Amino acid sequence: MNPSVALTIAGSDSGGGAGIQADLKTFAALGVFGTSAITAITAQNSIEVREILSVAPSFVVAQIDTVLDDLPVAATKTGMLASAEMIDALGALATAGRIPRLVVDPVLVASTGHRLLDPAAETAYLERLVPAATVVTPNLHEAGVLLGTALETLDDQRAAARALTEVGARWAVVKGGHATTDAGSDAIDVVCDGRDVVELRAPRVVTANTHGSGCTFASAITAGLARGMPPMDAIRAAKTYVHTAITGSARWQLGAGHGPLDHFRWNARNHQEDP
How do 49-54 and 186-192 pair as beta strands? Predict the structure, then answer.
């Protein structure tokens, strides 16, 4: 039996915690063969992003086409996209049906709150990629940028998830890991399929090791879709996987900043093997 195949279209993280590196680790951990198209090369670690070198949109498309022409990609995920031109190029591929079961993780806002893309690129996300998405997975800040409004409460989160499906996404997940109100001791993600709104809750883990959690969540959904799971099942499984990965690395001390996740459940495995 061949493994299911997934494609990630994202930037490279030299520190190994996020981006392409997190996506491929997640695919492997969940039993999916990972392929990739790199949109940008970053010089970064757990503390900072020092430099970014964007890849030309035409070469990103060449990577995607080369993979799709040979391998049976069953689901696709986008991460860091550096420009409106790149988003437009991917939107054209999506409209043509070239990139199946698209999971859009809109990387728009840094953890500091700094906007990463110009307004034209933000508009392109909403007009070109969100309508083509099987699932879109913004956090609170990113959903606020896409919809042009600040999101502060759980009710805001619910309204944003519904609004993103009205734009065209089949499923929208507005992640609440950054929430400071209404959430209490839980991290609450709000899911909407255009009709119903569902809250997914997990106990909030007190740790600085959350670098790449958004990438990991979106790639875990992609892995589930590639394996034939219905979207809601894939989203629920991804929530559980990310919570386990954050819990597993909570006490790690890799780097002086925001550390990575335990993608391969090493911590749980090592505990099981202790005498």
Answer: unpaired
Task: Return the percent helix, strand and coil in the chain, to nearest 5.
Answer: 40, 25, 35
In whole angstroms, give the CA distance from residue 188 to residue 175: 7
Q: Give the CA-trace dihedral at 175, 215, 117, 188, to 10 degrees.
A: 10
In this structure, the chain runs to a length of 275
Q: Which residues contact 266 (CB under 8 A, 6 or more apart)?
A: 248
- For residue 8, the one-letter residue type is T
* b/e code 56-78 from CB counts within 10 Å (16+ = b): ebeebbebbeebbeeeebbbbbb
Q: How many Cβ atoms are within 10 Å of 157's Cβ, its own excluded?
A: 25
Residue in 111, 47, 52 with CA at minimum distance from that of residue 83: 52
Q: How many CB atoms lie within 10 A of CB 177?
A: 19
Write the single-letter amino acid at 64: I
Q: What is the pLDDT of residues 94-119, one digit of tens each?
A: 999 999 999 999 988 765 555 667 78
pLDDT in tens, 69-91: 999 999 999 999 988 999 999 99
In this structure, the dihedral spanned by the alpha carbons of residues 201, 203, 204 and 209, taken in order and rounded to 10 degrees, is -110
